């Protein structure tokens, strides 16, 4: 968990730096590099007894929408980082559970408890407070960040749906397959 948090913080900070300070010319190139790095890193660590099967019928049947939602999330996040500050971007992306609640109910039939709904309402309130206090408020940046959060939650819900339907599909497998297929998109 600690390595995931550190990696997430590093990737977000480096992407923001590349988008804002370096004025990186093309988001697709940066996203492609991130996908290739993910594929290579996971291939190096792949267990020999259980290799990745990117052309397997069950994988190809269940992962196209997962991959597209991940690609949209990555691209929209890059655009949002250009238009908002990093703290505001992180607050807006934390609204992902709001979307996940509805999407999980629509796709998988899952429902939230009252405590979960209350927690999500508190996150929404925190986002509104952030927006009111944002001196560099950019409506387009906010809308793009909210769309990115929707795509992120769609990715997570569809990934869980794929795991429900493909025996033995792990979260690491999903990282590999979405990065592998996104290399063709970016």
Notes on the protein architecture:
The structure is a single chain. This protein starts with a helix and ends with a helix. α2 (27-45) packs antiparallel against α9 (171-185). By secondary structure, it is mainly α. The chain contains 9 helices and no strands. The mean pLDDT is 88. The protein has helices at 2-20, 27-45, 57-62, 64-83, 86-93, 96-108, 114-133, 139-165, 171-185. The longest helix is centred in the last third of the chain and has 27 residues, at 139-165.
What oligomerization state is this entry in?
Answer: single chain
DSSP strand (E) fraction? Answer: under 5%
User: What ranges have pLDDT less than 50 throughout 5 or more consecutive residues?
Assistant: none
What's the end-to-end separation, in Å?
Answer: 28 Å
Rg from alpha-carbon coordinates:
17 Å
Mean pLDDT: 88
Got a strand count? 0
In percent, how helical is the residue content? over 70%
| SSE pattern, N- to C-terminal | HHHHHHHHH
Structural class: mainly alpha
Q: Can you summarize the main beta sheet?
A: none
Supply the number of helical segments: 9
Shape: globular
